[in-house]
Specification:
This is chitinase. The protein is an alpha/beta fold. It is 33% helix and 17% strand. It has a domain of 280 residues: TIM Barrel, CATH 3.20.20.80. The protein binds 2-acetamido-2-deoxy-beta-D-glucopyranose (2 copies).
Length: 428
């Protein structure tokens, strides 16, 4: 108002009234907020289906750019398996194209970055530079994981990384400060409580204040550090992971559920009969207790990849005889002959997660690892498309009803939803 240069009570009063009318109008015409629908596009499977199948994807995260690239004083190159503009050309106009930094095993660059205010500033400045150079809409920080339990957890004990717990929200804050509110900042975060070292009621609000959303990795929830069979992306453990973040103070609208477009298997303990209780049965030793090395007793492959020859018989049997575990929510098969446990989501198992988790908790959206991994039949993508469309139809309808009834607050997603409150604790 000062800039207009016409002082006086009457004018400012009118101006305020006008402003209120304008705000009111724009709120009236505002669209309902639809679900976030995010795909990781990976260097391993840089495959994108025909445009109509990806028409409603809202964000794509290109995985990965290495974290250490951002610690150089003046980096001139930003190595990535594709370019932002190349990726952008394969999706609908308006799809946000982000660069995912880090990934499993790539933690050193983050540790170095987080150490001091100076190193954080340098990292953040370079993130800003990279965004400018590549034209990305933002970054997704995939530090797996701040505080430890990464690939190197046997060689670098978590105690040596305890300082990262406090430094992690600071690093995010430094990045936000450089990129501003108009660019996106998100993070991929662990789905297993044992890996949530840096995600506590103290830190989550600090993290939440900086990020647009968190991608909660509700897959690989069984890995080679386990010793009892379970579903790697089961409905119940996925919901538990989401609940853990909500309980730490993450608003549901900033939480995205992770979907896995790949299959996992692992060996059960030699001679162990798991037929009575296939879920919850003892597994073989899968990780070297000293080095943390892979003992070759577990593996994964995407729907895109040919089934490895030595697994073909067992997997064919799994596809034929696999069942859905109604109690814990997950598709599985125990191959008695090969003492092998298979765990994966069918398209139907993915669909169950929408009413079972996304709607139940009023989440902001979903993401999948990863888009190309579901080629070339795209069955899991199609299932996700269907469910996102259902959610969005509902959201639009509730928006219209809400508008007629003068009901709900603008900007609130799915007014009927629980909005992050957890009322059904005993269900777990
Ligand atoms: C199995 O793993 C749990 C932690 O996931 C651990 O506490 C337990 O000692 C392990 N049991 C055996 C027999 O290795
Ligand atoms: C994308 O959204 C539109 C509008 O809601 C819908 O008609 C269409 O079926 C959706 N496409 C896919 C592939 O889900």
């Amino acid at each position: 108002m000062h800039a207009i240069g016409i002082p006086g009570f009457w004018f400012s009063h009118t101006f305020v009234l006008l402003a209120l009318v304008v705000v009111g109008l724009s709120a009236e015409t505002q669209e309902p907020s639809l679900g976030r629908y995010i795909m990781y596009l990976t260097g391993q499977h840089n495959v994108v289906p025909e445009p109509f199948l990806v028409a409603n994807i809202t964000h794509v995260a290109l995985a990965f750019m290495r974290s250490e690239a951002f610690n150089d004083v003046d980096p001139s190159e930003w190595p990535l398996f594709t370019t932002v503009s190349e990726a952008r050309s394969k999706f609908a106009a308006g799809t946000k194209i982000m660069v995912a930094i880090g990934g499993w095993g790539n933690t050193d660059g983050f540790s170095q970055a987080a150490k001091s205010e100076e190193s954080r500033e340098l990292f953040a400045k370079n993130v800003g530079k990279m965004i400018k150079v590549t034209g990305a809409d933002g970054v997704d920080i995939d530090w797996e994981y701040p505080g430890g339990n990464g690939e190197d957890y046997k060689t670098v004990p978590n105690s040596e990384k305890a300082w990262e717990i406090e430094a992690y929200p600071k690093l995010l804050a430094n990045i936000r400060k450089v990129i501003g509110p108009s660019r996106l900042l998100s993070a991929a975060v662990p789905g297993l409580p044992r890996d949530m070292l840096a995600f506590t009621p103290t830190t989550v609000p600090l993290i939440t204040a900086q990020v647009d959303f968190l991608n909660i990795m509700t897959y690989d929830l069984f890995n080679r550090r386990d010793n009892i069979t379970k579903h790697h992306t089961g409905l119940k453990i996925s919901l538990e992971a989401i609940n853990a973040y909500l309980e730490c103070g993450l608003p549901a609208t900033k939480a995205n559920l992770g979907l896995a477009y790949y299959v996992k298997w692992y060996k059960t303990a030699p001679g162990m009969d798991c037929s009575e209780k296939p879920v919850g049965c003892k597994t073989a030793l899968m990780e070297d207790p000293k080095t943390g090395g892979d003992l070759g007793q577990a593996g994964a492959f995407s729907w895109h990849d040919p089934v490895p020859a030595e697994l073909a018989t067992s997997f064919a049997l799994a596809l034929e005889k696999g069942v859905y575990d109604e109690a814990d929510g997950g598709h599985y098969f125990w191959d008695k002959e090969e003492e092998r446990f298979w765990t994966w989501d069918t398209p139907d198992a993915i669909k169950m997660k929408f009413p079972g988790i996304v709607e139940k908790r009023g989440l902001g959206g979903v993401f999948a690892w990863g888009l190309g991994e579901d080629g070339l039949e795209w069955q899991h993508l199609k299932a996700t498309n269907d469910e996102m469309e259902k959610l969005n139809v509902k959201s639009r309808r509730e928006y219209r009803l809400g508008k007629l009834a003068g009901g709900w607050k603008q900007g609130e997603r799915r007014p009927g939803g629980p909005g992050g409150k957890i009322e059904e604790r005993d269900e777990l």
